[in-house]
Specification:
By secondary structure, the protein is α+β, with helices and mostly antiparallel strands. The chain has helices at about 50-65, 105-110, 140-145, 150-175, 220-225, and strands at about 1-5, 10-15, 20-25, 25-30, 35, 40-45, 75, 80-85, 90, 95-100, 120-130, 180-190, 195-200, 205-210, 215. The strands form three sheets. Strands 9, 10, 11, 12, 13, 14 and 15 form a seven-stranded antiparallel beta sheet that branches. The radius of gyration is 17 Å and the shape is globular.
């Protein structure tokens, strides 16, 4: 297989004209050995994290597919840490979408003089550009349209899907007495009709989750969700 992209937590290989293969790694994003789902660098490696991330992604993507919520997921091979997905066209050079239920992380760093950590945010959606050099800057719906990254209609679909998907995940976590504070998702245009679909992954490394006010580390979180 031809390697077409080497990412922070996954490598991407060409399969055919319609599909690619994602190879999950044990790396997670963070700074100075501390996990941070909003970071732009690999902060640490955790043995078994790739397999756990794939298992979680398989669990949630198959659940979403069964609910007729669009994703690019096709199938997975847990033994080899691989996932087959439909090819997706990015918005511009890529965007990331964050759904926030409580104020934490970069939200506090930006707006801390107006809000306290842990304050309710009611599924607030933010979109950032995938741009490591500029630390993934926030972008508005007007700027997205002006820069020909996505239309206003696509923005509305994307934010609606983000809230719907995030609620599915939030509700699933609540069954284990876990509380979702925020989660980062990715979307792309898939198929001949260019419909908007969830892409990439849903893993413990892309969310902040707490139990009784205490943060749960990604590896432990994954094990709890899948138990």
């Amino acid at each position: 297989m031809k390697l077409i992209y080497e990412g922070k937590t996954k490598d991407v290989y060409e399969l055919d004209s319609d599909k690619v293969l994602l190879k999950f790694k044990d790396d997670v994003t963070g700074n100075d050995g501390v996990f941070d789902p909003g970071a732009n660098t690999v902060g640490l490696s955790i043995e078994g994290m790739g397999n756990l991330g794939l298992r979680l992604t398989k669990f949630f993507f198959e659940k979403l597919n069964d609910m007729d919520i669009p994703t690019h997921y096709v199938d997975s091979d847990l033994d080899n840490q691989n996932m087959t997905v439909l090819k997706a066209k990015p918005f511009g050079k890529g965007v990331e979408v964050i759904c926030r239920y409580k104020a934490v992380g970069s939200f506090i760093r930006r707006y801390g003089m107006y809000i306290e950590e842990g304050q309710e945010l009611d599924a607030y959606v933010e979109i950032t550009l995938k741009d490591d050099e500029r630390n993934d800057p926030l972008i508005t719906d007007e700027a997205l349209e002006m820069l020909n990254i996505m239309t206003k209609k696509e923005y509305e679909i994307l934010t609606s899907l983000t809230r719907k998907i995030s609620k599915v995940i939030k509700d699933e976590l609540s069954k284990k007495d876990l509380e979702l504070y925020d989660i980062k998702l990715e979307f792309g245009r898939v198929g001949n009709d260019n419909h908007i679909a969830l892409i990439d992954e849903i893993s413990a490394g892309n969310m902040r989750v707490y139990r009784d006010g205490k943060y749960i580390e990604p590896f432990e979180l994954g094990k709890i969700i899948l138990s």
